[in-house]
Amino acid sequence: MIGCDLDDTSSCLYLGLILGLVVFCNKMLQQLEDMSYVKPSEVVRQTYESISAPIVEAWDEEEVLWVFGKKFTLPQQRDEFLKCLKSKIWCTYRKGFCAIGGTGPTSDSGWGCMLRSGQMLLAEALTRLNLGNDWTYDERKVRCRDGESSAYWKLLVQICDKRSSRYSIQQIAQMGVGEGKEVGDWFGPNTISQVLKKLSHFDERNNLHIHVVMQNTVVIDEIEKLCTLTPEEAEKTEDECCSASSSKTSTDSTTTSWKPLLLLIPLRLGLDELNPLYLEHLKTCMQYPGSVGFIGGKPNSAFYFLGYSDDSLVFLDPHTTQSVAKFPVRKLLLLW
Asked: Are 161 and 325 within 8 A, CB to CB?
């Protein structure tokens, strides 16, 4: 691997995984140019939680796509593929939110794409942690306030554009100052990794440990030490698990002593472009069920990648400016 300053390179890559080691890269961004004719208004709804894909709905050629370890054969499994995509939390540029730092910008348009991509990757990890790996978006269910729907809204509240939200654009931008980035500066892969890690230290809602790999080296012993719960934490976790399921057995005792892990690997493969020797290995990595995708691109242009086919990538694009999402005040109070 090539050592470099990830925030100052032109083709930086970033990959996030839950309980797994995977490296990923960028470059295939040229393929995004071929899809640029799709108007943003045709691809998205003005919400955090869902997207649609007219280009897929009209698909008639056979193609195999992988998304987070799940295989879809189009056009036969077109509906299943769309349902999977629409269940992903989609974050974009926003305008009209509370000024960052009180006197800062009220929109992240033009500079917040890596921050938004980081929010999406983290949201995928939190979705699996709180709602399960196979959770899918159902508009009728999320209108309710109980059970699964409540967990979903609690997740959205954590990333909405409120100063008090743990992973809001305000919190991420201001935490970046400690990493040498002024509010309004574009983040690189390493910066967003470190910022999410630091914010997670103040997260009392999610029992998630974020670990950032440095110098392309994963130290297993270090991760095991960081992710092992103290006896008090283990007892609390076990009590919560037992209350959620009366069928808990003694065989689960080993799992209650381990914190869920989000492993982030900032990485660059190649110099000015991806070394083709890595391609097949990277595709294999995206078939791993523990992958939560990767974010990357070039300076001032980052995307969140979910999967691939033989000649294209599945991605969410944050480069659409929408008005700030309005959450009902009563719902926010109930969730907090």
From this structure: yes
Evaluate whether 14 touches 296 at the Cβ level (below 8 Å): yes
Q: Are strands 301-308 and 63-67 parallel, antiparallel or unpaired?
A: antiparallel
Q: Does residue 315 contact residue 303 with C-beta atoms inside 8 Å?
A: yes
CB 196 within 8 A of CB 17: no
CA distance 203 to 23: 26
Query: Tokens 């190649």 map to which residue?
Result: 270
Cα separation, 99 vs 75, in Å, equals 45
Q: What is the pLDDT of residue 284?
A: 81
Rounded to two decimals, the pTM is: 0.78
What is the pLDDT of the chain when averaged over all its residues? 75
Per-residue three-class SS string for the chain: CCCCCHHHCCCCEEEEEECCCCCCCCCCCHHHHHCCCCCHHHHECCCCCCECCHHHHCCCCCEEEEECCEEEEECCCHHHHHHHHHCCCCCCCEECCCCHHHCCCCECCCCCHHHHHHHHHHHHHHHHHHHCCCCCCCHHHHCCCCHHHHHHHHHHHHHCCCCCCCCCHHHHHHHHHHHCCCCCCCCCHHHHHHHHHHHHCCCCCCCCEEEECECCECCHHHHHHHHECCHHHHHHHHHHHHHHCCCCCHHHCCHHHECCEEEEEEECCCCCCCCHHHHHHHHHHHCCCCEEEEEEEECCEEEEEEEECCCCEEEECCCCCEECCCCCHHHHHHHC
Digit-coded pLDDT (tens) for 234-270: 556 545 545 544 443 443 444 447 789 999 998 887 7
Residue 156 token pair: 């959205």
Provide the annotated active-site residues: 113, 317, 319
CB atoms within 10 A of CB 162: 19
Q: How far is CA 49 from CA 144, 248, 256, 326, in A?
A: 15, 32, 30, 13
pLDDT for residue 213 is more than 80: yes
